[in-house]
TrEMBL record:
InterPro entries: Ald_DH/histidinol_DH (IPR016161), Ald_DH_C (IPR016163), Ald_DH_CS_CYS (IPR016160), Ald_DH_CS_GLU (IPR029510), Ald_DH_N (IPR016162), Aldehyde_DH_dom (IPR015590), Aldehyde_DH_Superfamily (IPR050740), Succ_semiAld_DH (IPR010102). Keywords: Mitochondrion, NAD, Oxidoreductase. One of its GO terms (biological process) is gamma-aminobutyric acid catabolic process. The lineage of its organism: Eukaryota, Viridiplantae, Streptophyta, Embryophyta, Tracheophyta. It comes from the Eukaryota. Pathway: Amino-acid degradation; 4-aminobutanoate degradation. Residues 21-480 form the Aldehyde dehydrogenase domain. It is found in: Mitochondrion. GO terms for cellular component: mitochondrion. Homotetramer. Its EC number is 1.2.1.24. This is Succinate-semialdehyde dehydrogenase. It comes from Oryza meyeriana var. granulata. It catalyses: succinate semialdehyde + NAD(+) + H2O = succinate + NADH + 2 H(+). GO terms for molecular function: succinate-semialdehyde dehydrogenase (NAD+) activity.
Length: 485
């Protein structure tokens, strides 16, 4: 598989600074491992503050030329980047499966999804309209311009090695910003391959830079720089809070997509087949490793037994294996720490009275494979209810009334995605409006798309990505008053 990627010239292992592929200045490298096999698939440059500082300088000087192009010129380059990603879909998906573990089918899906943000914002670049405001004095004219914020620092996670980058870089480049990206150290290869295609597409040297290595050092450099005007981050709530605090000193704009604790509420009046299919997809996508994955499946008493047995059956049909194999629907977890976290949550739940209905242990394939798991009778004193498990574990939580379900769903500091299953239209409105969440799926388990706003409330984040709203995060308003006319 790696041969195919290499043959396409997409195996990049150095950082990208000012349009040049560069080693870490001290020559250090870090290993990228295939989580399905343990094989070291590449050694990439392990960078720190010096390289980051140069990347920022390069992004800063390029900002003046890139932001001066017309929207149409930037749009064309982005469009070309999109097309190159699509025409290298296979190689990018292979690379993603090799370094991240997700099944090829999901990897191919992510390439298309990732590319869609570039296409969407290439189009949106031309629609960044300003305003003319009726004046309060007759000899004045009041105007509002929208201008790019400047250099953007983008820090991204390993669970969507491409899409979490394009969702930030797409709108940033579209409106004239330049970017320094720090991908996850677990999945730098997809990011570097995508950056290579950006160069090929004619995105100018310095507009998109990629550095990886020592995360706190790189993050620290981005934070302390007065030239970096915006931090955009997807990852854990703990790191997000650090970045927000660290942005205070230079008063940067901040967008954060942090952890979730998604409730998936199945009411007595749900279509059971739709509910099973939707909650299965919402839970087990990427082996449960997404911030919108159903973390708690709340099931109303009247349907609990029926749902539980049908759900267990559906989960049994999932096939665990190496993502490169055609039949695989569940890849490995990203690393040993992820498996240990799952084990800790399972032990906590069983010690407090939950029952394992399926799975509940490491998979016989070894490595970081974990059995798709269903846990019954989960309650609000368990880690499985309180925190994001980020693994293939579906906790079932029984509830009595609609009111109880809403209360349980909102009983958390997180507020990213929620799902409800009901055939009642009034109930779907009532519950959707009562949920303290940024996204709600009604009778649907997979809802993300480039055309709709994605983002959380409470401690799940700040700002929105995707959609016409997503570009505002990279723009400043400027008010111009023309007087004495
Ligand atoms: P996850 O649990 O999804 O790995 P993290 O928040 O640890 O979430 O990682 C998301 C991204 O944040 C990664 O690119 C990681 O390297 C980066 N990161 C982790 N710690 C820091 C830090 N102190 N400063 C800047 N970035 C960091």
């Amino acid at each position: 598989a790696m041969e195919k990627v290499r043959a396409a010239g997409l195996l990049r292992t150095q950082g990208l600074i000012g349009g040049k592929w560069v080693d870490a200045y001290d020559g250090k490298t870090l290993e990228v491992q295939n989580p399905a096999t343990g094989e070291i698939i590449a050694n990439v440059s392990c960078m720190g503050s010096k390289e980051t500082s140069d990347a920022i300088a390069s992004a800063h000087s390029t900002f003046y030329s890139w932001s001066k192009l017309t929207a149409s010129e930037r749009s064309k380059a982005l469009r070309k980047w999109h097309d190159l990603i699509i025409s290298h879909k296979e190689e990018l998906a292979l690379l993603m499966t090799l370094e991240q573990g997700k099944p090829m089918k999901e990897a191919l899906g992510e390439v298309t999804y990732g590319a869609s943000f570039i296409e969407y914002f290439a189009e949106e670049a031309k629609r960044i309209y300003g305003d003319i405001i009726p004046p309060t004095l007759s000899d004045r004219r009041l105007l509002v311009l929208k201008q790019p914020v400047g250099v953007v620092g983008a820090i991204t996670p390993w669970n969507f090695p491409l899409a979490m980058i394009t969702r930030k870089v797409g709108p940033a480049l579209a409106c004239g910003c330049t970017v320094v990206v720090k991908p996850s150290e677990f999945t730098p290869l997809t990011a570097l391959a995508a950056a290579d295609l950006a160069l090929q597409a004619g995105i100018p040297a310095g507009a998109l830079n990629v550095v990886m290595g020592n995360a706190p050092e790189i993050g620290g450099e981005l934070l302390q720089s007065t030239q970096v005007r915006k931090i955009t981050f997807t990852g854990s709530t703990a790191v997000g809070k650090k970045l927000m605090a660290g942005s205070a000193n230079t008063v940067k704009k901040v967008s954060l997509e942090l952890g979730g604790n998604a409730p998936c509420i199945v009411f007595d009046d749900a279509d059971i087949d739709v509910a099973i299919k939707g909650s299965l997809a919402a839970k087990f996508r990427n082996s449960g490793q997404t911030c919108v994955c159903a973390n708690r499946i709340l099931v109303q008493e009247g349907i609990y037994e029926k749902f539980a047995s049908a759900f267990v059956k559906a989960v049994q049909s999932l096939k665990v294996g190496n993502g490169l194999e055609e039949s695989t629907s569940q890849g490995p977890l990203i690393n040993e720490a992820a498996v240990q976290k799952v084990e800790k949550f399972i032990n906590d739940a069983t010690s407090k009275g939950a029952n394992i209905m399926l799975g509940g242990k490491r998979h016989s394939l070894g490595m970081t494979f974990y059995e798709p798991t269903v846990v019954g009778n989960v309650s609000n004193n368990m880690l499985l209810f309180r925190e994001e498990v980020f693994g293939p574990v579906a906790p079932l939580v029984p509830f009595k009334t609609e009111e109880d379900a809403i209360h349980m769903a909102n009983d958390t500091n997180a507020g990213l995605a929620a799902y409800i299953f009901t055939k009642s239209i009034p109930r779907s409105w009532r519950v959707s409006e009562a949920l303290e969440y940024g996204l709600v799926g009604v009778n649907e388990g997979i809802i993300s798309t480039e055309v709709a706003p994605f983002g959380g409330v409470k401690q799940s984040g700040l700002g929105r990505e995707g959609s016409k709203y997503g570009i505002d995060e990279y723009l400043e308003l400027k008010y111009i008053c023309m007087g004495n006319l």
